[in-house]
UniProtKB/TrEMBL annotation:
Keywords: Amino-acid transport, ATP-binding, Cell membrane, Membrane, Nucleotide-binding, Transport. Belongs to the ABC transporter superfamily. InterPro entries: AAA+_ATPase, ABC_ATPase_HisP-typ, ABC_transporter-like_ATP-bd, ABC_transporter-like_CS, MetN_ABC_transporter-like, P-loop_NTPase. The keyword ATP-binding applies. It is a peripheral membrane protein. This is Amino acid ABC transporter ATP-binding protein. Its main location: membrane. It is found in: Cell membrane. The keyword Metal-binding does not apply.
Length: 256
């Protein structure tokens, strides 16, 4: 068992584990033997330059990108088995991407409740009651009947996160969820993620917000050219990185 998997097990059981994950686009290897584990109620943050493989890793875990080698487990199920029902697996995972991807023709409440009603067969009344409670928690209950184009970017991203957690997913994947936001809106979205952490959500996320990673992550994983160059607690990886590539990456970020 790798160090990350051992820590995930100690955290209360492993929700996600990848072993030797490989993905190439033609001759370009994007993921080159990735071993990562996320324990129950743990927040693991992936960092690295654009093109390092972070987003591809999240897409592979959500079965949106077929892998060339390796295995992926969600709890105890091998979801990389080609016989697996991908839609059933995705119903267990909440995903939020850089772009909000809200359906523009649906109200905020309909966006939030769509998966519960269509995928999980929850009654409309129950789904809407739960959706309104979640929107109340993020201060958007009064916008439930509004359409996405009437919301700010930060509000739209909060709705996207509410939509992702509305079905109580076993795992939440967040891919650079603040990169499309104006700087003044970044804080409100990251505050919501911090709240989800406090409530026990299991999260694997990518971000360039190092201050957030330092305070919210249980572990930080640095990817370089599709490989894990360094991984460990945030105080070690972000404050005292051991790998020269990690030091160089963090120096470039801080120089911006």
């Amino acid at each position: 068992m790798s160090g990350g998997a051992a820590r995930a097990e100690a955290a209360g059981g492993t929700v996600l584990r990848t072993e030797g994950l490989v993905k190439a686009f033609g001759d370009h290897v994007v993921l080159d033997g990735i071993d990562v584990a996320v324990g129950r109620h743990e927040v693991v943050v992936l960092i690295g330059a654009s093109g390092s493989g972070k987003s591809t890793l999240l897409r592979a875990i959500n079965l949106l990108e077929p892998i060339d080698d390796g295995r992926i487990w969600l709890d105890d199920e091998d979801i990389s088995d080609p016989r697996v029902d991908a839609d059933r697996v995705r119903a267990r995972i909440g995903v939020v991407f850089q772009q909000f991807n809200l359906f523009p023709h649906l109200s905020v409440l309909d966006n939030v409740t769509l998966a519960a009603r269509r995928v999980h067969r929850t009654s409309k009344a129950e789904a809407e009651a739960s959706g309104l409670r979640l929107l109340e928690r993020v201060g958007l209950a009064d916008r439930a009947r509004s359409y996405p184009d009437r919301l700010s970017g930060g509000q739209q991203q909060r709705v996207a996160i509410v939509r992702a957690i509305a079905t109580n997913p076993e795992l939440l994947l967040l891919d650079e969820i603040t990169s499309a936001l104006d700087p003044q809106l970044v804080g409100e979205v990251l505050d919501l993620v911090a709240e989800l952490k406090e409530q026990g959500s299991t999260i694997l996320m990518t971000t360039h917000e190092m201050h957030f990673a330092e305070h919210a992550a249980d572990r930080v994983v640095f990817l370089k050219d599709g490989r894990i160059a360094e991984a460990g607690p945030p105080e070690q990886v972000l404050r005292d990185p051991q790998h020269p590539d990690t030091r160089a990456f963090l120096s470039r970020l801080r120089a911006r």
